[in-house]
Amino acid sequence: MSGGLVDTLGRPVRDLRISVTDRCNLRCTYCMPAEVYGERFHFLPRAEVLSFKETARLARLFVEAGAVKLRITGGEPLVRADVDRLVAMLAAIPGVEDLTLTTNGLLLAQRAERLAAAGLRRLTVSLDSLDPAVFGRMNGRGASPQQVLDGIRAAQAAGLGPVKVNAVVERGVNEHTAVDMVEHFRGTGVSVRFIEYMDVGTLNAWDRSRVVPSAELLTAIDARWPVEAVEPAYRGEVAERYRFTDGAGEVGFISSVTQPFCADCTRVRLSPDGKVFTCLFATDGTDLRAPLRAGEDDSALAARIAGLWRARADRYSELRADLAGAGRERRVEMYRIGG
After folding, report:
1. Phi-psi group of 17: left, alpha or beta (phi > 0 → left; psi -120 to 50 → alpha; rest → beta)
2. Tally of CA atoms within 13 A in the half-sphere of 277 that contains its CB
3. Which residue of 233, 240, 289, 291 has the smallest Cβ count within 10 Å?
4. Whole-structure pTM value
5. Are the C-beta atoms of residues 229 and 214 closer than 8 Å to each other?
6. pLDDT grade, residue 123 (50/70/90)?
7. Which residues share a beta bridge with 192?
8. How far apart are CA 245 and CA 101, in angstroms?
9. Contact 253, 227 (CB under 8 A)
10. What are the residues facing 168 on neighbouring strands?
11. Residue whose C-alpha is closest to residue 328's, from 200, 193, 170, 181
12. Contact 335, 22 (CB under 8 A)
C-alpha cells in the first residue's frame, strides 16, 4: 500500500491527526463550552480508548498508505498519562517525516523535556489572547496566558521548534487583541496563526456574524508591519503564510469559512476510540477499533484504510451554505478529533 492513495477528488493522504483523549483541562467556548461539558459529562471509558500500541499500529498503516506527517491532538493530549511513550513509538515508524503535537500549553512546562527526548520535533500551542481577562473567559477556566507562555519557553529550551501559536478569533470577543499577539511574538521565532471561528460540531453556538475574516486581520497587521506572501511549502498546507518584510518572522491565517481549502485537504483523523474521520466536519467516522481488536491482520486493516480514503469526497467548507440549508446532521465535536 506504499504511497499513491488518492480520494475521489485526487487528494492524497498526507497528514494523520491522532486524538489520544477526549478529555481536556479547559472549557474553551468554541470547542467544549462549560455549560455543556460540566462535571457530570461522561467522557469515553478507558476500555474504549485505544492503547498506545493500538494507536501506533494504526498510525504505521496510515504511513504505509502515504501519510508522512503525524500530529498528536486531543482533547488536550498532555492530560493522557505518559503520552511521551506514544511519541517514542510514533517517532520509530519508518517514513514519518514530521511528528508534532497540539496542546493548550498548561502542562507543557512540566512535559517539554520528556516530549523532546521521546522524539517530538515541534509543536503548536493554542493561545487565543494575551489579555488575561479575555483569555480567561474564552478558556472557560480562568487560566492565565502566563501559564501558556511559560510552556512555550520550556518547549523552546527543550529544542522543540519552531513553535507555532494558534489563536481562534471571534468578533466581539478577542479580535481587538490580535495585533498585540503579533507584536508580542514578532522576532521570537514563534509564528502566530489566526483561525477563523468555525462551525465544528453543533454545540458551540456558531454564528457566522462572529467570524472575523482573515483578510480583515491581514490588512490590520500589514498596516502596522508590512508583510509579503510566502509560497506554500507543500500541497495541502492549511495556513496561508506571510513574512514580515523586516525579517521579524511570519504570521499565518487558517480561513476555512471565507477561503475554503477543501480542494487540497490531505488530512485524516483518528479518534481516541479508533474511528477514522475524513473531514473535520464529518457526522460520523469509520470504526477500526472493532476489527483491530477482533484480530484482523495488517493486510485487512490496510485494505479498510485504502477503501475509506479512495471513497472520500468531503467538501464541507466549500458547500457550507448548501449543506446548512439542507439541515445538516449533527457533526462530530472538535474535542473528539483534534480540530
Report:
1. beta
2. 23
3. 233
4. 0.91
5. no
6. very high
7. 165, 251
8. 29
9. no
10. 195
11. 200
12. yes
- What is the crossing angle of helices 132-139 and 145-157, to 10°? 90
Flag the least confident range among 16-20, 36-40, 198-202, 313-317.
198-202
Cell of 176: 481587538
Joined grid coordinates for residue 111? 512535559
C-alpha closest to that of 157 among 115, 189, 111, 112: 112
Q: What is the 3-state secondary structure (H, E, C) of the chain?
A: CCCCCECCCCCECCEEEEECCCCCCCCCCCCCCCCCCCCCCCCCCHHHCCCHHHHHHHHHHHHHCCCCEEEEECCCHHHCCCHHHHHHHHHCCCCCCEEEEEECCCCHHHHHHHHHHHCCCEEEEECCCCCHHHHHHHHCCCCCHHHHHHHHHHHHHCCCCCCEEEEEEECCCCHHHHHHHHHHHCCCCCEEEEEECCCCCCCCCCCHHHECCHHHHHHHHHHHCCEEECCCCCCCCCCEEEEECCCCCEEEEECCCCCCCHHHCCEEEECCCCEEECCCCCCCCEECHHHHHCCCCHHHHHHHHHHHHHCCCCCCCCCHHHHHHCCCCCCCCHHHHCC
Cell of 259: 477561503
Burial class (CB in 10 A: 0-12, 13-18, 19+), 130: buried
Whole-angstrom CA distances from 60 to 52, 66, 297 are 12, 10, 13
- Rounded to an integer, what is the distance from CA 130 to the centroid of its chain? 20
* From 189-193, 208-212, 265-269, the region with the lowest mean pLDDT: 208-212
- Rounded CA separation 162/122 (Å): 6
CB 17 within 8 A of CB 267: yes
- Cα separation, 156 vs 46, in Å, equals 33
